[in-house]
Structure formats: C-alpha cells, structure tokens
Design brief:
By secondary structure, this protein is of the alpha/beta class. The chain has 7 helices and 7 strands; from the N terminus they run αβαβααββαβαββα. Strands 1-2-3-6 form a 4-stranded parallel β-sheet, sandwiched between helices. It has a 3-stranded mixed β-sheet with strand order 4-5-7. α2 packs parallel to α4. The termini are far apart.
Length: 210
C-alpha cells in the first residue's frame, strides 16, 4: 500500500511504531510479533518503497529508548550512545519496556543500513518521553496514561515501577510534543540536518512530576 502513497513525494517522515508496554511493568506477550517485527520489517518495507518512488530524504522518529539502555551509564550521554541489543534480548521477558527499547534500536539500525544502501539521506529524531497536548483527546496515548498512573500512585509509570502508593526514585527526561513536531519539520527541510538528534528539554524526578 505504500507505493501509491509515495508517488511524487521527495521527502518522508516515518513516525509510527507500536508501543506495547503494559502499564503494570510486566513484559508484553509475544514481543517479537507485536512489537519488534512491525517496527523493523515495517520500516524496511516503507524505505524500499520510498526509494522506488524517488524519495531522497527520510526523517525517522526513533527514541531515547534506542540510546539509554546499557550495562554501565556512559560518562557523557549524547547522540553517540546506543542501547545494548544483547542486554535487551536477555531482558525481553522480564523487563516491561525491553521489547520497545529493542524494537526502536533495531529499527534505527535497519533504517541506517537501508538508507545507506538505497541512497536515501537519513535524519533521525530521538525524543525522550513525549508529553503535551494530544490530537486524540478521547483515546489517551501511552505517555499520558503513564503519567496518569504515576499520579494515581498505582505502582509507577509503566516505564519504571514501584510499590503502590509510592513513586519510583528516578529522574526522567521529557520533551514537549510541539518541540518534537518542529524538530521533524526542521530535519526534513534543513539540508544541513543529518545523523541523530536527541530531543530532551527537561529532567524531572518522578516525585515532582506526580
């Protein structure tokens, strides 16, 4: 179905990836089929279709999840950081967000490889937890549901769990959805934009968020 949609396009912004993170912190069932394959194989199918129709510039929505999971925290956290694929695979059935983090890491790696092979110029946006106004007010997205659960004291946010009636002792990175949207447009239109861009405008402890 991508072929008809991409005909005549010169640029592509690919934002879609399933978010299969249970809010209780448990691992999703069948993460390979529900999370990883749609992210990686869907991206590959789309990029190949884009190349067939003359698209030359691609902006990919990745995530801080593709950067932040490692055995030892880096001395400097920046765009050179990558999540540890082998570590994520080992935690796939024990850590709730592992499947999403793995999917985003593999998706970005596959997009980088394919764009180089297909002659597409790739720019990647890596947002922290995206918050702000939603276009679907009657169908809350994962970020808003996670914050609502945190505020209600029901065991953390889904990304980070804790006992009921408490908040995780963790500082989290956030970015406003309007800033993320602007970053995508700039990445598409500015010919100097390339590589990865970590988007994170605020650090906040979960206690302050709640």
């Amino acid at each position: 179905t991508f072929d008809g949609l991409l005909e005549g396009c010169v640029g592509l912004i690919h934002t879609a990836t399933p978010i299969e993170i249970p809010l209780d912190g448990s691992p999703p069932s069948n993460p390979e089929e529900t999370q990883i394959k749609p992210a990686v194989e869907g991206t590959a199918t789309l990029l190949k279709a884009a190349a067939r129709h003359g698209v030359r510039r691609v902006v990919l929505t990745s995530s801080i999840a593709a950067m932040r999971v490692s055995k030892e925290p880096p001395k400097l956290f920046n765009e050179e950081c990558w999540s540890d694929v082998s570590l994520l695979r080992s935690r796939l059935h024990t850590f709730g967000p592992a499947a999403y983090c793995l999917a985003k890491t593999l998706q970005e790696q596959e997009a980088t490889r394919l764009c180089e092979a297909l002659g597409l110029k790739l720019c990647v946006v890596n947002p922290a937890l995206v918050i702000g106004p939603t276009l679907t007010p009657n169908n809350q997205n994962f970020s808003l549901l996670a914050l609502a659960q945190l505020a209600s004291g029901r065991g953390g946010s889904g990304l980070d769990t804790c006992r009921h009636g408490h908040v995780p002792d963790i500082i989290k990175g956030f970015v406003d959805v309007r800033e993320v949207s602007e970053a995508h447009v700039r990445a598409l239109l500015d010919p100097r934009a390339s590589g990865r861009y970590l988007l994170q405008s605020h650090w906040a402890h979960y206690h302050d968020v709640a």
